Q: What sequence folds into this?
């Protein structure tokens, strides 16, 4: 039988009517141990189902070194029918109780070693669609707090500018990288807005289109991503992590496969790969 733990919601930041950042603190004992890239299972009893507990997975946006709370970012699923758990979560308030099961998940664990046992020092590129940014917010803060010197670039795709959920935090991390120098902290963050024609997005001056367009070469030359990092990405120098809709994963692989990149799911006989992903599907 599954035994749920209890936590208290301590912080609710509604970014828009269907997007929320939430923090929770376990009622009994410390924040559980977890690794950057993992998800936690949350649950609430559903009155419409006779109090049956509905449980769902949520990527953890906070980082393992943060022992104060677990943070998540949640989309309220409205169509075609209101989601069973997210509708309840969007009615929850600071001080309310929520159930949780311990963090788990292997798909987006940070790769530390190459198949030959050498340390993996390749540049890291994280591509997050919508709330699929969450595991990479954890990556960035984890790398920062553990003084990891690897180069890390986060690309976020959203339909609307008010869905750039961690713009402040990630911009501050990039500014710190500029101030300290890339030998100390090597971080960049860029976003793409996929509905630039909409009035609400009229102030957007950055990349337009879905997030995978960062990988599309311009006129046979460098892609916007390669222009940003000032280097060609190859399977020898780059490791990618992708989280989002299956269409985002497929779109990214459409650009990477011709360059010889392989996913962990399709790793080569020698155990090598350059892409890890977790899809919404
Ligand atoms: C590893 C992992 C990590 C995740 N991380 C996050 C995260 O960080 N943030 C986040 O927001 N989400 C995340 N999710 C998604 C999350 O787990 C839930 O799937 C999501 O929140 C929807 O849950 P729900 O109970 O509200 O919707 P559900 O009730 O499960 O509904 C799901 C879909 O089915 C439709 N539906 C429901 N009932 C019917 C019906 N009778 N007929 C037709 N359609 C129906 C709903 O409209 C909706 O589109 C993650 C999922 C996984 C697997
Ligand atoms: N790890 C997981 O499994 C996980 C993690 C987080 C969220 N989720 C679940 O995923 C659902 C939606 O997430 P969201 O609201 O964060 O995403 P979203 O805001 O709807 O979309 C994010 C970006 O992805 C693009 N997109 C939409 N559909 C696409 C497709 N089929 N192929 C390629 N790109 C696509 C959007 O472009 P357009 O503007 O063109 O639509 C937008 O730029 C939610 O139900 C959430 O619960 C799952």
A:
């Amino acid at each position: 039988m599954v035994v749920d733990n209890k936590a208290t919601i301590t912080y609710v930041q509604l970014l828009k009517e269907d997007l929320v950042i939430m923090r929770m603190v376990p009622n009994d004992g410390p924040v559980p141990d977890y690794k950057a890239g993992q998800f936690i299972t949350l649950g609430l009893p559903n009155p419409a189902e006779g109090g049956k507990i509905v449980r769902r997975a949520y990527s953890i946006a906070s980082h393992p070194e943060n022992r104060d709370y677990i943070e998540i970012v949640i989309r309220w699923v409205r169509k075609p029918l209101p989601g069973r758990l997210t509708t309840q979560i969007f009615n929850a308030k600071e001080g309310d109780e929520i159930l949780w099961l311990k963090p788990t998940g292997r798909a987006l664990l940070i790769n530390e070693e190459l198949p030959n046992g050498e340390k993996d020092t390749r540049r890291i590129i994280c591509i997050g669609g919508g709330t699929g940014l969450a595991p990479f917010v954890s990556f960035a803060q984890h790398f920062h707090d553990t003084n990891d010197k690897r180069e890390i670039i986060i690309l976020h795709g959203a339909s609307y500018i008010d869905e750039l959920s961690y713009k402040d935090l990630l911009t501050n991390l990039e500014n710190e990288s500029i101030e300290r120098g890339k030998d100390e902290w090597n971080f960049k963050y860029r976003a793409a807005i996929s509905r630039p024609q909409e009035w609400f997005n009229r102030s957007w001056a950055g990349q337009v289109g879905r997030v995978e367009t960062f990988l599309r070469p311009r006129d046979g030359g460098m892609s916007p991503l390669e222009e940003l990092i000032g280097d060609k990405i190859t399977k020898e120098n780059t490791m990618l992590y992708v989280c989002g809709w299956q269409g985002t994963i497929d779109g990214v692989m459409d650009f990477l496969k011709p360059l010889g990149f392989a996913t962990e799911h399709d790793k080569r006989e020698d155990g090598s790969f350059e892409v890890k992903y977790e899809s919404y599907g």
User: Anything to note?
Assistant: The chain has two domains: 5-104, 123-279. Residues 59, 75, 77, 129-132, 157-159, 163, 194-195, 210, 243-245, 247-248, 251, 278, 280 surround NAP (ligand 2) (CB under 6 Å). The longest helix spans residues 167-180.
